[in-house]
Amino acid sequence: MNRNGFFHGNSVSPVPTKKEDMLLLLFSALGCIVSSSIATKVGKVMTEKDLRRYLFADYDKLVRPVKDPNNAMIVKTSISLLAITELDEDNHTLVMETWTTMKWKDDYLTWDPNEFNNITILNVPDSEVWKPDLSVYTSSSDDSLFPRSNFLAVIYSDGTVSWIPAFTIKNRCPKQKKQETSYYFCNIRIGSWTYSVNLMDIQLIDELVPLNNFLDTNPNWILINAMTNRESKHAFVADRTHWNLNFLLSIPCGELR
Description:
The chain is mainly beta.
């Protein structure tokens, strides 16, 4: 021992105090918790099941999915004709098979793909999401509202929802006459059943009626014209103004083939 009270040779560490012991234990515990958390996060593979739980934990499909209630829901729509299955010349009604495309943004169904194993698309039953209450105003039957079925809705990470149900439209088609030609004029008018223009903005996806998948093989009639337009209408019964989408079809009377 030298005169300052220290031993020569190997040094001896000072004896730790109780306060230092407690601090060491605290830092060790924190280190274990952090390392365990990191290991869990790195080792966890986020699946579609995890994503679905994340999106629908507090989701309400009964209200418009907008975070700002002053914003109108923009719903883009088109009707793709598949086939004309019946033309009742006595009652002036047309029955056709269609695919009806509807797209909108849902503010509450968004996520960061980086946090969910790069998942960018999620397919869910259409009954689980909010859907626009579009209906065919000119339908001649009670099933004017678009189907409530098990067609899947496709959700994209930016909140875009795409729903394309198959739908049978039975529409009134009055007979028209232009010069010497008689034809049936069908205006398939689609709009919201309850939402006014300030709550739902219905837009056309295509300016033309898509006929890529149309089977024009019926021997008794032929589709000669198909157009679209959009207009705003005031409903006096409900006292509201809403958007209408018109899909205009022309079919000559009589047998053409």
